[in-house]
Amino acid sequence: MKKIRLFTPGPCMVPEEALLEMARPFEHHRTAWFKDVIKDCTAKLQKVFHTANEVLILTGSGTAAAEGAIVGCCPPGSKMLTVEGGKFGERWGQICEQFGIPVTRHKVDWGTAVDPGVIADHLKKDPAITAVMVVHSETSTATACDLAAIGKITNAAGKLLLADCITSAGALPLKPDEWGVDIVITGSQKALMLPPGLGFVSVSPRAWQTIENNKKQTAFYVNLNKARKSAKDSDTPFTPAHLLVRGLKVTLDMLLAEGMENVWKRVAGLAAATRAAGDAIGMTTYSKRPSDSVTALNVPAGVSEKDFRKQLRDRYGIHLAGGQDQIEGKVVRMSHMGFVDSVDTIGAISAIEQTLHRMGHSFTLGAGVAAATKVFAERA
What CA–CA distance (Å, rounded) separates 40 from 37? Predict the structure, then answer.
């Protein structure tokens, strides 16, 4: 008997309560009932994001929400600075180029986080830059940046700050209002514990001034002005993924019942235990500034990354993600988001050990489980 256990950094495990809610007979979305659900979810998203800023619910992935935010915040005459230390940071620069938005694409080594001082230097050297976009938690490299420090710099310079929080919102400490983050973007299939299909964006009053004055905004479907107009009536401009919204109400209630600070603590514990286990069995942490929402572990020499993940899936039903682009075949990525706890994580570590042992990797069997268990015991 084999259960599917998603440790991929999206989609993540979904609670049964949400699945059951989404399996119920559905109602029409242009009703007072659905508007009440949208209104309730919007208020709860503000609590999860720790923001008083408006939050929009969009049908589409996190990339759709990011595209709407980038285009909306960059009217003619704007220039964007993107920070790119992985596949997703690169995507935001590509979107700028796709829409003809002038962009400076600052590269950082994969597995490292940008020095906030570098952003300050860019803003001093190029006053034409009007907005900065960073990835809070770069999913492809499992690396987190110092978003609070970056926010101080962009606010002092009077620039908009857009943050890809797709694998940080709901998992890592996030305080947009306190840190001065104008745009927060995420998707449903990460820490919000749902299947893919919803994107979310919180927008500061300062960002709304730019978006509202952007009369030549080229986005149609992910037009934030349209979304905001409908949201004022707890509605959506186009057909929503309304079953996912029903599931969202359930998962938001679960997160808030646990308490966001407790969620952050739980996720940090899962990550710390995984990193300790990796060190104990010869799978060192790839990132020099690791994110807590997802861990990238170096695959031991002599072990085929693809075969390793295939055996985990086939024998144990455990799904890890591989590396992308320049680190393809070199790392595996294990999520700590979604409906996952310490018992799930210990089980995955045990399966990883057994698989490595069968593949001929030399280490002390049980060392990873022991190291992870010690972390959990010390954090209890």
Answer: 5
Q: What is the pLDDT of residues 109-134, one digit of tens each?
A: 999 999 999 999 999 999 999 999 99
Expressed in percent and rounded to 5, the helix, strand and coil fractions of the chain are 45, 15, 40
Confidence of residue 344 (pLDDT cuts 50, 70, 90): very high
The string of pLDDT tens digits covering residues 293-305 is 999 999 999 999 9
Peptide bond before 11: cis, by omega within 30 degrees of 0? yes
For residue 235, what are the contacts with CB-CB under 8 A and spacing of at least 6? 30, 35, 38
DSSP-assigned letter for residue 300:
P
Q: Taken in order 174, 177, 178, 182, is the CA torsion positive or negative?
A: positive
- 16-257 architecture in CATH? 3-Layer(aba) Sandwich (3.40)
What radius of gyration, in Å, describes the C-alpha atoms of the chain? 21
d(CA 26, CA 34): 10
Cβ–Cβ under 8 Å, residues 218 and 75? no
Eight-class DSSP state of 314: I
Closest CA to 91 of 105, 102, 79, 101: 105
What's the whole-model pTM score? 0.97
Task: Write down the domain spans for the chain.
Answer: 5-9+259-379, 16-257
Check residue 217 and give its pLDDT: 67
Cα atoms in the Cβ-side hemisphere of radius 13 Å centred on 329:
4
Please state the CATH superfamily assignment of the domain spanning residues 5-9+259-379 in this structure. Answer: Aspartate Aminotransferase, domain 1 (3.90.1150.10)
Angle at 141 between CA 196 and CA 286, to 5 degrees: 135
